[in-house]
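Re: that backbone. C-alpha cells:
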C-alpha cells in the first residue's frame, strides 16, 4: 500500500468533479430553487440521519454547521436515498452535501457500539483512502485503497472515463470522453449531460445573460 499525508494526485479530479457538480446544480435549480432535495446515501440512510444529528449539537464547529441546522426534516426514503426538507430554498445543497469534512457519514452501528472514541481511532469509511493514524496538530496519514475507482465505477449509474485512461478503466466505463484528462474532458461531459436533458441551449443563454 502507498501511504501519503497529502493527496495531491486527486486535486485535478476534485476540480473536475466540482465543475460538473456546479453546472448540474445550476441546471437543476434554474427554474425554482427546491426546498426538498433527495440524495443517494450509499445504502446507509440511517447513518445519514445519525450524521446529521451530530451536526445539531451545540459543540459542533464544522464550517457549514449553520447550513445543516437549516434542515427542517430529514426523511429516509428507502435503503439508498435520504430526503432533506429545508426551511428555505437551498440551491447550494449539492455543494454542501459533497463536503465530506462537514457532513461526513458516520457509521451509526459503529457509533452505537464504540462511541466517539472508537470512531476517532478507527473511523469506518468507503472512500478511496483508508485512515491509518494521526499525530495531533501535525499530520494525518492515509493509505490508498487499491483499484477503488473500479469498484465505484461498477456501482454507479453512469461511469465515465477520460480518453487517456487505462484500458482497465475504459472497459469499466459506460461513456468515454474524446478529450484527455485535464484537456476539456469535464467540459465535454457537462455538455453531453446537459444536451441529454434538453437544456444545453437554455444554459448557454443564461450563462451569456
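Recovered sequence:
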Amino acid at each position: 500500500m502507498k501511504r501519503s499525508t497529502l493527496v495531491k494526485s486527486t486535486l485535478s479530479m476534485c476540480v473536475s468533479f466540482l465543475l460538473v457538480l456546479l453546472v448540474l446544480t445550476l441546471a437543476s435549480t434554474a427554474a425554482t430553487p427546491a426546498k426538498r432535495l433527495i440524495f443517494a446515501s450509499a445504502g446507509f440512510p440511517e447513518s445519514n440521519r445519525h450524521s446529521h444529528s451530530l451536526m445539531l449539537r451545540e459543540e459542533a464547529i464544522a464550517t457549514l454547521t449553520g447550513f445543516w441546522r437549516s434542515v427542517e426534516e430529514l426523511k429516509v426514503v428507502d435503503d439508498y436515498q435520504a430526503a432533506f426538507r429545508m426551511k428555505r430554498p437551498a440551491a447550494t445543497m449539492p455543494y454542501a452535501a459533497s463536503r465530506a469534512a462537514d457532513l461526513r457519514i458516520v457509521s451509526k452501528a459503529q457509533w452505537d457500539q464504540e462511541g466517539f472514541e472508537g470512531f476517532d481511532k478507527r473511523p469506518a469509511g468507503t472512500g478511496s483512502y483508508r485512515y491509518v493514524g494521526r499525530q495531533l496538530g501535525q499530520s494525518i496519514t492515509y493509505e490508498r485503497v487499491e483499484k477503488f475507482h473500479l469498484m465505484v465505477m461498477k456501482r454507479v449509474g453512469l461511469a465515465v472515463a477520460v480518453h487517456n485512461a487505462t484500458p482497465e478503466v475504459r472497459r469499466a466505463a459506460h461513456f468515454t470522453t474524446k478529450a484527455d484528462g485535464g484537456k476539456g474532458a469535464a467540459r465535454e461531459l457537462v455538455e453531453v449531460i446537459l444536451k441529454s436533458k434538453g437544456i444545453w441551449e437554455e444554459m448557454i443563454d443564461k450563462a451569456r445573460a
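The chain is about 40% helix and 20% strand. The mean pLDDT is 75.
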